[in-house]
Amino acid sequence: MLPMPERLTCGGCALHPLCLPSGLDQVALEQLDSIITRPPPTPRGKHLFRAGDPFRALLAIHTGSVKTGVLSGEGDESVTGFYLPGDLVGLDAIHAGRHASHALALESTSTCEIPFGHLEDLIATTPTLGRRLMRIMSHSMGAEAELLTQLARNTAEQRLAAFLCSLALRLRERGLPDREFVLTLSRHDIGSYLGLALETVSRLFSRFQQQGLIALRGKLVAIKQLDTLQERAGLSRASGWITGADQSPRAARIRS
Amino acid sequence: MLPMPERLTCGGCALHPLCLPSGLDQVALEQLDSIITRPPPTPRGKHLFRAGDPFRALLAIHTGSVKTGVLSGEGDESVTGFYLPGDLVGLDAIHAGRHASHALALESTSTCEIPFGHLEDLIATTPTLGRRLMRIMSHSMGAEAELLTQLARNTAEQRLAAFLCSLALRLRERGLPDREFVLTLSRHDIGSYLGLALETVSRLFSRFQQQGLIALRGKLVAIKQLDTLQERAGLSRASGWITGADQSPRAARIRS
DNA sequence: CGGTCCCTTGATATTCATCAATATCAGTGG
DNA sequence: CCACTGATATTGATGAATATCAAGGGACCG
User: Fold this and answer.
1) Closest chain B C-alpha to A120 CA, distance in angstroms
2) Separation of CA B118 and C1' C29 in angstroms?
3) Distance from the Cα of residue B153 to its chain's centroid
4) How far is A6 from chain B (nearest CA, A)?
């Protein structure tokens, strides 16, 4: 069985099960293929779109990674999202028909462009597709809410540990190496995403390394003890485990 | 012109322009009416649904207010959402078919129940309705992202000021009194929502009152100087205004 | 009344942002 | 190949914002 040469169809894409086409039948897949285009890859540091740009298409990450963010009055960037292959970028712009945030390639990134007008037409005749998109949006809302409680309630250590755990999980879902990978986000970006100063991120990385939870070489990270990292993230407590001594510096950050 | 007696139809509802039916034609409206039910009001302190419940229907708040939240392992509640009339609750449960959070009535609350299975059927034949729902979800995602950057980057004062401003705005959109209203969320809930201790919320309320920005009598709040409150929220800086001296205690909470 | 819940205010402790100095690395051009 | 340069990362010292601890005051309710 020789592998077929890769074709630019959703059906043949390895990310199929995670991305928009998941669960669609053959007919719907072909319709989707007919409206999707694959622009040339965006090089590292270039914008996919900017705040204020009219919203024309959803972007599915094919390879690479992307951050989204907004600029404050002084020009500081707040990182609001971090996207991996199979993720859909731009969903929050549907409402206003205009992007409220910018998106920037963290490495050379290839995307599938899904013109939204065409997608809406397709949805009108293919309800399955609409259901799929709604589910993705619902999922995305849940993930955002989870991040929100992370930021609101947890210590810096818990946030960073949770970030690493969730990243490892997402990489595994995509069939990518999940115990050793390159952090395409800088320390600064991670801090901005998690609401921490870049120095705090750096210090925590160092601490985790000293404690043998991870190994670091520049932007390359190796997860050594995912279980301990999960405990540090406070996830064990959320599920009601009894893990002996409470590891967290405070019993609870927000008193009840 | 005597007012018609209120009928249980979306077309006759004052919240029409904000809620799901916005922009629908007469036919679609009647279809929507045919699947929506209005259960008896939920009294203050009672649950609309709990975490783990199967997802059956979206709830549109008709009158009253609702908070959503999750429970940590120790039973502490994290408030994740705050809903007013015209808002749709439960969108994040579509994906999993199960509620990840609970919803609790903050006062006697009347809701419109929209069975999701029926709604999906309706959407299959009425694309306008699907578009409307997607826009609502997109809008909701944007709002969540905004809250997220608020929590990640701003001081306690900025968060609380922003909370009050956005609440006033939402009340105005709904045609409700927006300069004087009852806070149905407790100090504890507000703190949990904004990632602050209840004492900090209380202190900030006192400070705002001393400075004449608001007037407080228990849960009753009167907004005295919305413009100053907006400055405190850091919104003026985001839009690039030049307001003279920088009011914030630190130039920027996260260094660039 | 007595109890409970919610709020307010004060004193103290702690996390983490900020300031600052140095180290590392990638790219560029001599 | 090496100096130069700018971006990025690490590490230490300090201070500020805010959580925590503590005590008391109202309001509501049985």
Assistant:
1) 8
2) 69
3) 21
4) 30
The full set of domains in chain B, from first to last, is: 10-146 (2.60.120.10), 155-238 (1.10.10.10)
3-state secondary structure of A23: coil
B132 to chain A: nearest residue by CA? Answer: A95
Angle, helices B127-153 vs B26-35, to 10°: value is 70
**Rounded to an integer, what distance in angstroms lies between the CA atom of residue A67 and that of residue A44?**
11
Residue whose C-alpha is closest to residue B102's, from B74, B131, B130, B77: B77
Under DSSP, the state recorded for A39 is P
CB < 7 A from strand C, the residues are A 155-157, 195-197, 199-200, 218, 249-250; B 186-188, 198-199, 201-203, 205-206, 216, 218-219, 250-255
Query: Exposure of B253 by Cβ count < 10 A (0-12 exposed, 13-18 middle, 19+ buried)?
Result: middle
Under the banding of pLDDT at 50, 70 and 90, the label for residue B218 is: confident
Both tokens of B147, joined, read 């809250």
Interface contact flag, B147 A148, Cβ < 8 Å: yes
- Give the whole-angstrom CA distance, residue A145 versus residue B140: 11
Asked if residue A127 lies in contact with residue A73, where contact means CB atoms within 8 angstroms, the answer is no
Find the Å distance, CA of residue A86 to C1' of nucleotide C29. 41
Strands B77-83, B66-71: pairing is antiparallel
Angstroms from B249 CA to nearest CA on chain A: 16
Model confidence over A139-197: pLDDT tens digits?
Answer: 999 999 999 888 888 999 999 999 999 999 999 999 999 999 999 999 999 999 999 99
Lookup: tokens for B235: 């919104």
User: pLDDT tens, A91-118?
Assistant: 999 999 999 999 999 999 999 999 999 9
Phi, psi of B117 (to 5 degrees): -60, -45
Write out the two tokens for B76: 């502490």
User: Chain C positions under 7 Å from a protein CB?
Assistant: 6-11, 14-20, 25-26
Q: Give the DSSP per-residue string, A124-171.
A: HH-HHHHHHHHHHHHHHHHHHHHHHHHHHH--HHHHHHHHHHHHHHHH
